[in-house]
Amino acid sequence: MDTAELLKKVRKVEIKTRGLSRHLFTGGYHSAFKGRGMSFSEVRVYQPGDDVRSIDWNVTARSEEAYVKIFEEERELTVMLLIDVSGSAYFGTSGGLKQDFLTEICAVLAFSAIANNDKVGVLLFSDRTELFIPPKKGRQHILRIIRELLNASEMNHGRTTDLAGALQYTRNVLKQRSVCFVLSDFQAQNYEAPLRITARRHDLIGIHCWDDRERNMPDVGLLYASDAETGQSRWIDTSDPAFRKNLAADFDSHLLQTKTAFRRAGADFLSLKTNVPYVQSLLHFFEQRSKTVRHG
């Protein structure tokens, strides 16, 4: 797309998602993640019961009265968005392309993050790393991320999905503990071990994006269909009840396997359908995480 059209789309996404992100931020994003450590806040006079290891001996020596250091949890985070731009991301029916859906969710998460003064980075991946944008702060940085996501369809990117490679790349470039969102339909193989390794180092969340026609196919007779990831094409008979039943069963089996992989890795997982409003699902997700963080 040309520059003017791209900027217009970026602005449209910004207007919509900034409003949604304010709603999401007040609904739990800012309390859904633990900070990256403890930072010094102030000193105060020692009180009975304080840990003697927290005594500030320099201040104590100067004042001739015992003072202790007070620390607060640092709330600033690094948020990394790992976004699947393989062939299947460009499938879509009534809810639009899955890639458009993922772009919008990424924008909401990114604007929520900068509202919390967090840094945001992006990794676009297919069967290889397509683009890495290092984590930074600021509105202009977020607009660049949106621009790259909207322009991803213009890339000569890979067709299949190497999630294991994307997770390995992320571990190599992120030196401190970060919050990592993986946004994909998870049409990938052999990523369970890298998933576990990454989840031990980072706070990992999978966001599964799917189109209703991937599970529920209407009876429209014979269709000539192509697999977006393999490129293989064949005729399918959508009037066959057995075909539609097997399609739903295969989808449900794959979704369960994906959920199980994330659960075994100790990572969170959320599944979102493109033609269903996602804000309430995200709000509920962050509110639940907030409770876990408070009681963890």
Brief digest:
The chain is 42% helix and 25% strand.
Describe the structure.
The chain is α/β, with parallel strands linked by helices and 296 residues long. It has helices spanning 3-26, 57-63, 98-115, 139-150, 163-173, 192-201, 241-265, 279-295; strands at 37-45, 67-74, 78-84, 92-93, 96-97, 119-125, 129-136, 179-184, 203-210, 222-226, 233-237, 268-273. The chain has 2 domains: 3-31 and 76-295, Rossmann fold (3-Layer(aba) Sandwich); 37-74, no CATH class.
Q: How many runs of DSSP E, i.e. beta strands? A: 12
Compressed to H and E, one letter per element, the order equals: HEHEEEEHEEHHEHEEEHEH
Indicate the radius of gyration in whole angstroms. Answer: 23 Å
What's the helical proportion of residues? 40-55%
CATH fold-level name of the largest domain: Rossmann fold
Major sheet attributes: 6 strands, mixed
Poorly predicted regions: none
Q: Pairing-aware structural class of the strands and helices?
A: alpha/beta
Distance between the termini: 47 Å
Can you tell me the CATH superfamily of the largest domain? von Willebrand factor, type A domain
CATH C-level category of the largest domain: Alpha Beta
Number of distinct helices: 8
**What is the count of structural domains?**
2
Mean of residue pLDDT values: 87
β-strand percent reads 15-25%
The CATH architecture designation of the largest domain is 3-Layer(aba) Sandwich
Strand order of the largest sheet: 7-6-3-8-9-12
What best-fitting shape do the alpha-carbon axes yield?
Answer: elongated
